């Protein structure tokens, strides 16, 4: 190995050990799934390796465990009704129940230790159908397969002797999977915001919108904030609940808004590879405004019993050929079943 290559590898490893671990924890459930053959990799195995990293906290989600419920509405401007026959995109309003969260499986983690956040929403249509989506404040996934993500997760587990990840294991992973380097480059320059309200949340995976004529449109989407970006401050880094306190304070002063923006694929854009961002010149459609006006604690709150499965889609929306969507659906179900069973047990013990 030449000197330059050795230095580059050391740089990636050092970056990973200092700042990438929380980001890695965040995406585990985006890659989990029981759709793989049982003898190779299952959602059970991925849940177990996640719990080795974040610990077991019964009654909570296995990832994005710390969060808050939100209530509001989506005001559709009708622009997306030419792309999808789903009634949520017809001009009008739909009730929304959602959740903000930080990555990781520890519900008591300080907000400032986890730079990547998530927004999950359930849109209630007038016809009884729902659209559920889980979005994340990052531009793309780190690796290209479920198997490679599992390898990454195991490579970053704390060493029994030191309590820290083994740099040699991570270096070996980077050598084997150089596709992770763009993710490291993004993480190196990433500056977390001071508020959930000013983050942009991305679908990451592609989906299909189906119009009234049956034509399909390959899209990704983002929730683009109206609030201005403010970087995390030194004071925020001393307050373990600064995101929750900020959200509560802002909503006491007024509603918070995001624009729902669809990005349309062009020929050559892949719908089955979430590690690649589509070019910035792709056509976009502003479908309307998400308005949030109330927040509640997550435990026993309206978002607590919602499984934000990305494959719960109304007529007029469908999954792309991205296999990660099936993986996410399977893992979310596994997490939901575990935590609701544990919550029921704890409730019974109190009687």
Can you walk through the features of this model?
This protein has 351 residues and is of the alpha+beta class. The chain has a single domain (3-350), classed as Catalase HpII,  Chain A, domain 1, CATH 2.40.180.10. The protein is built from 8 helices and 10 strands. Strands 1, 2, 3, 4, 5, 6, 7, 8, 9 and 10 form a 10-stranded antiparallel beta sheet that branches. A hairpin with a 5-residue loop joins strand 6 (207-210) and strand 7. It is globular and about 60 Å long.
Overall residue-averaged pLDDT value: 85
Distance between the termini: 65 Å
Count of runs of 4 or more consecutive helical residues: 8
* E-strand count: 10
Radius of gyration: 20 Å
Low-confidence stretches: 21-39
Features:
Catalase HpII,  Chain A, domain 1, 8 helices, 10 strands, single chain, alpha+beta, 351 residues
């Amino acid at each position: 190995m030449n000197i330059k290559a050795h230095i580059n590898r050391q740089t990636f490893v050092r970056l990973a050990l200092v700042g990438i671990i929380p980001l890695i924890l965040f995406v585990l459930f985006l890659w989990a799934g029981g759709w793989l053959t049982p003898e190779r990799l299952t959602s059970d195995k991925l849940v177990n390796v996640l719990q080795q990293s974040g610990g077991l906290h019964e009654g909570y989600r296995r990832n994005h465990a710390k969060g808050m419920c939100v209530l509001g509405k989506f005001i559709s401007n009708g622009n997306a009704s030419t792309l999808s026959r789903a009634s949520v995109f017809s001009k009008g309003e739909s009730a929304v129940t959602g959740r903000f969260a930080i990555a990781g499986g520890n519900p008591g983690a300080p907000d400032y230790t986890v730079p990547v956040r998530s927004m999950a929403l359930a849109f209630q249509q007038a016809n009884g159908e729902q659209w559920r989506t889980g979005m994340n404040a990052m531009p793309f996934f780190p690796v290209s397969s479920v198997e490679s993500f599992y390898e990454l997760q195991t490579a970053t587990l704390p060493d029994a002797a030191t309590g820290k990840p083994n740099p040699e294991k991570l270096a070996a992973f980077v050598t084997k999977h150089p596709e992770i380097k763009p993710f490291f480059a993004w993480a190196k320059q990433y500056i977390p915001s001071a508020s959930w309200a000013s983050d942009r949340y991305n679908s990451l995976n592609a989906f299909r919108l189906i119009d009234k004529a049956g034509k399909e449109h390959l899209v990704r989407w983002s929730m683009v904030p109206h609030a201005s970006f403010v970087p995390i401050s030194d004071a925020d880094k001393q307050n373990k609940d600064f995101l929750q306190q900020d959200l509560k304070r802002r909503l006491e002063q007024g509603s918070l808004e995001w624009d729902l923006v669809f990005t349309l694929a062009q020929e050559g854009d892949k719908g089955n590879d979430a590690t690649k961002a589509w070019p910035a010149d792709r056509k976009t459609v502003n479908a309307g405004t998400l308005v949030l006006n109330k927040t509640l604690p997550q435990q026993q709150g309206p978002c607590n019993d919602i499984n934000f499965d990305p494959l719960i889609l109304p007529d007029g929306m469908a999954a792309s050929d991205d296999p990660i969507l099936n993986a996410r659906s399977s893992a979310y179900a596994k997490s939901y079943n575990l935590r609701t069973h544990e919550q029921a047990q704890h409730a019974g013990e109190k009687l």
